[in-house]
Amino acid sequence: MRPLRVIAGAVLAGPGLPLVSKRAAPAVWFLPGGKPEGGEAPLGCLRRELREELGVELARAEHLAEVRAPAALEGVAMHMSVFVVEVAGSPAPAAEIAGLAWWPAYDRLRLAPAVRDHVVPALREAGRL
Fold first, then answer.
1. Is the pLDDT of residue 15 over 80?
2. Which domain holds residue 100?
3. Pairing state of beta strands 4-11 and 77-88?
4. Does the first or last residue of the chain, that is N or C, have fewer Cβ atoms within 10 Å of its Cβ?
5. What's the whole-number mean pLDDT along residues 37-56?
6. What is the DSSP string of 91-118?
7. 8 A C-beta contact, residue 21 and residue 98
């Protein structure tokens, strides 16, 4: 079985790293992003997902990492491309997003394994956190 394909954005703005929780799992916090639609390029997917989930426009993106980890919601293998992004607009939860919080300002968030074990260390190693 092929891993679940996900494109995600680490938005570095404001008081930390904005994370989202989804209605399907409101206690778990993820990077904004999602699954590409048929034939959709990674940055096209990220642009669409940021608009749908947070109501912001993608202004700039820089590749950070390719993450292979269990998908927190689906419980299957996942391949996630992560981009450090700048956005235009103020993020606000929309679509399937239940909440928006900045980490580490709210350090008690239960981070998805891919965020906790891969993205946060990669951002720290790159000097972005």
1. no
2. 4-125
3. parallel
4. N
5. 96
6. ----TTEEEEEEETTTTT-EE-HHIIII
7. yes
